[in-house]
Amino acid sequence: MLRRPVLYYLALAMTLCSTSLLADEDRGIDLTSLIRDDWVRQAKARSQSKPLTVADDAAGGCDGIKDGTAGFHTQKQQNPWWQVDLGSVVPVGRIVIWNRVNDPNGTLRAKRLVVRLSADGKAWEEVYRHDRALFYGIKGGKPLTVSASGKKARFVRVSLADNEYFHLDEVEVFAAENLETNLALDRPATQSSTSNWSTPRKKPVSDSFRNAADEALKLAVATRTLMADSNRLASYDTALADLKKKFDEAAPDTDFQKLYFAVRRLRRELILSHPALDFDRLLINKRPPPKSIAHQCDQYYGRHSEPGPGLVILDSWKETPRPTVLFQGKLPKGSVLHPDLSFDAKRVIFSFCDHTAVMDDKIKLPIHPVEIRFGYKNQETGARRFFIYEATIDGKKVRQLTGTPADPLKTAYDRATVLIEDLDPCYLPDGSFVFASTRSQNFGRCHEADTPLRFFFIGQMLTVRISVRYHSARPTNGTRAFCPTAGSSTRGGTTSIATIRGSRASG
Fold first, then answer.
1. Which residue in 473, 474, 452, 391 sits closest to 425, CA to CA?
2. Quick one: how far is CA 337 from the chain centroid?
3. Which of 86, 201, 221, 399 is the most buried (most CB within 10 A)?
4. Alpha helix (H) residue ranges in 288-384
């Protein structure tokens, strides 16, 4: 119970950090840049997760990305159109239209193009009608340049005088007095319809950041509500109120990206200020995902594991993270799984699969037909299995607890259908621990009848002298260890439960 508040707020805090913090231990980590990049990705993901609107698709026509494909794509209809809102009335100098050039038929569709201008989005003036000649974009020829002769407008509309699909790569608009700055870039746009070929915007634009800032403010307010310490958080209340006021009074040309970042920074500081997160070190396990196996139990076979760096201590994790790999040179090449920190934070217990293990010819390990198709062979991977290890938190002392010569590897009723593997250890308050194992040696009812499966049982190990005593046995997969009682259930299903007793070995 004491750990739950810490883990809860830690989970919140880690959502504010980039998932790629530990991509490379040898390089310096610019946490600020990583977090900002992650916030941008989240803003983009929010815009793409909602139903696609005409504005979403139209944004691709003025996002600054010119790659020859369709920046937007309407349905086939009479007189389809696309338009952009420049934000204010300006004298328009020229309009540059980049055609789609990745499909010859697509390039031909723009031959009856019409350009119109409007100051209010209601009354339109035609300033150009194309002569049906081909024009291009990033390749094949030049884009189309239309002179507007300084006519004043806020809205620019491009359409087809035809019953046709309409798509272009990019539309650029330049003021008469400044032919270098693209006024249409990242401005709100819309169009007559969407189609099966419509796609979300290629990058977040100002409208996306407005929506993202709105959602971030709501989340920041909800987070503040959960943290009841009004005196300690008075400064956050003031800052949050100021940001809310800026958003409510924002003009159309407000830099919503800047406002979005300010809200995200404030919420991050708010969460990290919680007393439950008043520590400077994190224990992280780095391991690749299992090879092709996603089954809730099969993925934990040692032969499906991939080697990785293992346990890493992350110092100064809030601002200037510094990673240290614990077992560098202390364990063979292998995979670490399910670490658990002791209550005094001086030791860590974990599962480890030695990838240098040599196959024992006496072990006959059945392999699922699907696994044969993936190329698994007993001689190569059959001896890879997880056992329980323990280490001091500084990584100086590492020892194996199960699977040692002193472990008789006793199974339930002396059955022998799969390799014994021990996983997911969890410390108990008295210094002992519980763990999951295949020592029950059962079969899986959701697999073929002749295929043994890990039916993890929950065991408690207190010594290298091991004896197994069954409490219950049911044909349901148990995947995680917990503090057991007779007949308990794990993850909603009753599992085989055993108790391994004795006095805990010292050292």
1. 391
2. 20
3. 201
4. 369-373, 378-381
Which H/E stretch holds residue 11? helix 3-14
Write down the mean pLDDT value for the chain.
77
**Closest residue by Cα to residue 477 from 507, 430, 443, 428:** 443
Alpha carbon 281 to chain centroid, angstroms? 23
Residue 455 — very low, low, confident or very high, per pLDDT cuts 50/70/90?
very low
Rounded-to-integer distance, Cα 213 and Cα 405, Å: 60
Residue 423 main-chain phi, psi, to 5 deg: -140, 170
CA distance 174 to 345: 63
In sequence order, the 6+-apart residues with CB closer than 8 A to the CB of 396 are none
Whole-angstrom CA distances from 11 to 145, 158, 459 are 53, 48, 28
Alpha-carbon distance of 440 to 419, in angstroms, equals: 11
Entry pTM: 0.57
Residue of higher predicted confidence among 482 and 239: 239
- The closest alpha carbon to 110, from 140, 143, 84, 64, belongs to 143
Most confident of 19-33, 393-407, 453-467: 393-407
Task: List the single range of 10-19, 248-257, 437-446 with lowest mean pLDDT.
Answer: 10-19
pLDDT tens sequence across 160-188:
999 999 999 999 999 988 888 899 998 99
Instruction: Estimate to the nearest angstrom the gap between the alpha carbon of 135 and the chain centroid.
Output: 42
Residue at 490: amino acid letter: T
Whole-number Cα distances in Å, 378 to 290, 366, 375: 17, 8, 10
Sheet holding 347-354, edge to edge: 334-341, 347-354, 386-392, 398-400
Contact indicator for 137, 99 with CB cutoff of 8 Å: yes
Q: Which residue has the tokens 């009848």?
A: 449
Please, are residues 100 and 107 in contact by the beta-carbon 8 Å criterion? yes
Compute the distance between CA of residue 136 and CA of residue 99 in angstroms, rounded to an integer. Answer: 5
pLDDT for position 225: 87
pLDDT in tens, 332-383: 999 999 899 999 989 999 999 998 876 555 555 555 555 555 555 555 555 7
CA dist 424 and 338 (Å) reads: 5
Residues 70/169, Cβ–Cβ less than 8 Å: yes
For the purposes of burial, counting CB atoms within 10 Å of the CB of 447, is it exposed (0-12), middle (13-18) or buried (19 or more)? middle
> Facing residues of 354 across strands?
334
Residues 6 or more apart from 499 whose CB is under 8 A from it?
459, 460, 468, 469, 471, 484
Angstrom distance (rounded) from CA 259 to CA 39: 12
Question: Is there a contact between 35 and 131 (Cβ–Cβ < 8 Å)?
Answer: no
